[in-house]
Amino acid sequence: MEFELSEEQRLLKESVDGLLTEVYGFERRKKYMKENAGWRKAIWGRLAEQGLLGLPFAESDGGFGAGAVETMIVMEELGRALVLEPFLPTIVIGGGFLRHGGSVAQRAAYIPSIIDGANTFAFAQLERNSRYDLENVVTSAKKKSNGWIVDGEKFVVINGENADVLIVTARTRGAQRDRSGIGVFLVPADAKGVSKKSYPTQDGLRAADITFTKVEVGGDAAIGDPENALSLIERVVDDARTALCAEAIGIMDESLKTTVEYMKTRNQFGVPIGSFQSLQHRAADMFVALEQARSMSMFATMAADFDDAGERAKAVAAAIVQIDKSGKFIGQQSIQLHGGIGMTMDAKIGHYFKRLTMISNTTGGADYHLSRVCESDALL
């Protein structure tokens, strides 16, 4: 696949890289993890000042009208720096629901506070035993006069502890696994009846298990059709998976660079280990795996503009299959080539591998998406 960035896109890449080089680094990241939110609000403000939080939103909503390629560029750079700030849950997912399904009033009420960095979002979707099936929803939303009553539990909600607004999937009618009868609701994080149990995740982020007990929201809280929102959910989740693919590319690229640099400086038998032909071949295999993954990430990004939802979903699934395989290979080889130091908390290479592993678990990994590709009669 031939893919060239435009001049504006190259400038975007350089500006994001320059900002993160200035404010982020491995040692600084460890300090940011200890903040109350698990990330630094001053950094979030810098992202807002640089216009990154407004990239995907339409100019009529106060944004810059950028597309999936620009999101890919930003996510790759965020991956390189292992950024903790909630760009994915707020901009890609929260913003995605508002862009694809929000009313004019909802966009006017929420998007400005996203763009200026005042509010962050979290996506409350995962339920007990639901795995990656988006239609498996037990949390209920029952109609009450002009509003809704939300009851249920959601698990592993990234940024759930500190988000200002929760985007909650809930069943308005039907059985647990029916594709119809699912709605998406905007719930204030401090609403009466919302309780949270927060904890750190293996990759340094923070998540929360959230319980909704007779939480009342207004009739304007529903995004789109409250009885047929599954197609909207699938669209936004595939956008998020595509963004995670791009983040994984940034992590794999940085993992390879870090490993090659280590091979140049680590001496064994009086010479750098990078001089050993067998290890050079292994680094070459890592590079091939990275380029295979990169091409599929680009393909998934291009698919964001496909009119056919089925073709778009197949492209994302196929990309995840390759990226998951490449990520595991590059991560494992990076750790092995670093030797014992790669297993320590003080070496950043292990943190790259942790994040790659969590991305795999979040997207569904190769096995789940290979089954999606096979069921769709598509070819990899």
Question: Mind sketching the topology for me?
Answer:
Layout: H1 7-23, H2 26-32, H3 41-49, H4 68-81, H5 87-101, H6 104-115, E1 121-124, E2 140-144, E3 147-158, E4 165-171, E5 182-188, E6 194-200, E7 206-218, H7 230-265, E8 267-268, E9 271-272, H8 277-303, H9 309-338, H10 348-363, H11 365-375
Parallel strand pairs: 1-4
Antiparallel strand pairs: 2-3, 3-7, 4-5, 6-7, 8-9
Helix pairs in contact: 1-4, 4-7, 5-6, 5-7, 7-8, 7-9, 7-10, 8-9, 9-10, 9-11
Any overview of this molecule?
The chain is α+β, with helices and mostly antiparallel strands. It has three domains: 7-119, Acyl-CoA dehydrogenase/oxidase, N-terminal domain (Butyryl-Coa Dehydrogenase, subunit A, domain 1); 122-227, Butyryl-CoA Dehydrogenase, subunit A, domain 2 (Beta Barrel), CATH 2.40.110; 231-375, Butyryl-CoA Dehydrogenase, subunit A, domain 3. Helices cover 51% and strands 16% of the residues. The protein has eleven helices and nine strands. It has helices at 7-23, 26-32, 41-49, 68-81, 87-101, 104-115, 230-265, 277-303, 309-338, 348-363, 365-375; strands spanning 121-124, 140-144, 147-158, 165-171, 182-188, 194-200, 206-218, 267-268, 271-272. The protein has a four-stranded antiparallel beta sheet, with no helix packed on it. β2 and β3 (147-158) form a beta hairpin. α1 packs parallel to α4 (68-81). The radius of gyration is 21 Å and the shape is globular. The model has no long low-confidence stretch (mean pLDDT 94).
